[in-house]
Design brief:
With 128 residues, the chain is mainly beta. 13% of the residues lie in helices and 55% in strands.
């Protein structure tokens, strides 16, 4: 009986892992206008994906204090197919929120966003 229960728990745990969205995980952002970057932890939130800044780095790569640590950087993010995601994106260096387009290719995430017809490239984030 114990073996059957352990086997069932293993199958259930494996199924949960298999259902994780490919965007989930930790991403290192490209350097912003000030040369700073950060780690974004992407997790499910309600029926979408959200990403929170967990660690900030200065232009020399040293960890730094930032009022944006703990802030949502991406939210309302939904897969569109073919590695494309659409949602919302906050850019701390510009203090602006954009409609985002994220393109996932392996361990690289190409980030861009638009607001009022003005679009901006956010660089390529890498999976950590």
């Amino acid at each position: 009986m114990k073996r059957w229960i352990l086997a069932a728990l293993t199958v259930i745990a494996s199924a949960g892992l298999a259902l994780a969205d490919p965007l989930e995980g930790t991403w290192r952002t490209a350097a912003d206008d000030n040369g700073n970057s950060g780690l974004i932890e992407v997790v499910p939130c309600d029926d979408a994906l959200c990403g929170t800044l967990t660690t900030a780095f200065d232009s020399s790569g040293e960890e730094m204090q930032s009022p944006n640590v703990g802030r949502l950087i991406i939210w309302d993010t939904q897969p569109r197919g073919g590695g494309e995601y659409r949602g919302r994106l906050y850019s701390p260096d510009r203090d602006r929120t954009y409609n985002s387009r994220l393109m996932l290719s392996g361990d690289s995430l190409t980030v861009s966003g638009c607001v009022l017809g003005i679009c901006r490239q956010g660089g390529i984030w890498t999976r950590q």
